[in-house]
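seq as requested:
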Amino acid sequence: MYKLFLALLVSSGISFANMENGIALIVNDEPITTYDIESTMAEGKMNKNQAVGLLIDKALYEQSVKENNITADIFDVNEYIEKLANANGMDLYAFKSVVKQKYGNYEVFENEAKDAVIRQKLIQRLVKGQLPIATQEDMELYYEKNKELFSTSKFYEVMQYTSKNKASLIATMNNPTVLSAEVEKAPVRLGVENLQPQMQFLLNETKTNTFTPIFTANKQFVALFIIKKEGTTALNFETVKGKIFNDIMTTREKKHLKEYFEKQKLTADIKIVR
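struct tokens:
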């Protein structure tokens, strides 16, 4: 039925533009409007057929989540985020600091984490343990084929700012031209091979001419200002092993869900509203 619908869409030249903000189609009693389609086209830079297909997938996914009573509370989300931190070799505080710097709005990241938890729960319900777990061989092969994903700079020229007073350090970071008496600074050259995984991640995720999030070392608060990054190298396998496992399993989850909902489309009640 779904393939027939797309064929009709292409051959008959159905125009959704003539039904401003109206219902364009219905998926198992759930309406999809022309606004939904146009918004999806604009956001994803795709054509109408692609947008319609994506919206149908989304509707079927959300219906399946509801039918299976899948939810994710704050404890589920925090547990997932902690696992992400561990996979990147970081403690939770440092990981959250990097995420906040990268996303700007931390709620966006939390929503993505919640979506991931719901997806994993749905997979567990649908697959019931049949989804193959990534093996050591799988991870090593993935690493060799995708080394560019794990590239980092060989050396970092940084200005290190340290203080026992966090407020003073923050004030200096906001205005580096005014150095507080409670803050010390010193130029440092760091080689990535000599750094712990947490520091590797921290420096790699921080842009040049910006500060890293504040972290603690030797009972002091520390922030590094990235002056320059030099050279390129790949992080070693053991450092990124946890991340690779997550990447492989996420890909498998999405692939399984895509195949599952392709089958669901064949029996779904999809109606064109003219």
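The chain has two domains: 1-67+131-149+236-274, 154-231.
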